[in-house]
């Protein structure tokens, strides 16, 4: 059967390359964009015998570390060498920008259930499912944070010395550069974060975007994690910065609806944020006394990411209608972080 030749924007000239790498007739290759992401673009590549996933940076954007496809491919390779099995098999990395205008990579597709911001139609996921998923998710994060770094080569993928300071200053600068509206809460949070950086450091391999919609699960009756996706922000740094980012996405039932757009952690049966912290604390040697700081940073970072996407939308580089309302997400993140700082509660 001949595949549809109407390729998505940004992949118009990729078929000859895919044909050579995957060793199939280009007429039999299907290409379809996965909808729902807010950052790098992801596509399903189908062939007569197998399915793959292609990842490329957003359109109309200079490549930054967060959109470095070559680096993400190297991370997948290094994680495999480190014995971390929950990653898709990396297949090929193309650094030649003349193919589609940017570097990209191909990996095998892992079949399973991915939970977005609502339970898929036709599925019944009960409290037991989400209770076990909460535990599996944290066990996976703990496993990642405790990976061996030197022999595996993972240690070469980041600079842990001064990591927290660099991150706080870097995300504050990103907010300033992408700012479109005057949001007082975000400004106050940025100032507080820069003035209150914890002195205690720790080192581990961190994902930096670890949440339910980046996990491939066994199925509606099996919350086992088969694979973790979207490694573009992974590095070597402070594991509690990673936990803080995950907590920023870990919304509860009474949180602002805008903050529930990114994770199903508010469904009945999930651990609360305080239970997440208690579970991690019980299974980690790290000192969690400064978790309010790392949680506030996580919320600030989520707000900056939303701000960057919103600015791209305002500049005409992204036309997804979902992006038009992201400025309200930025404001909600700032207010939630400021509330946590003032109350010293998470």
TrEMBL record:
Residues 31-262 form the Aminoglycoside phosphotransferase domain. CDD domains: ACAD10_11_N-like. It holds the Pfam family APH. InterPro entries: ACAD10-like (IPR052898), ACAD10_11_N (IPR041726), Aminoglycoside_PTrfase (IPR002575), Ser/Thr_kinase_AS (IPR008271). One of its GO terms (molecular function) is protein kinase activity. This is Phosphotransferase family protein. It comes from Arthrospiribacter ruber.
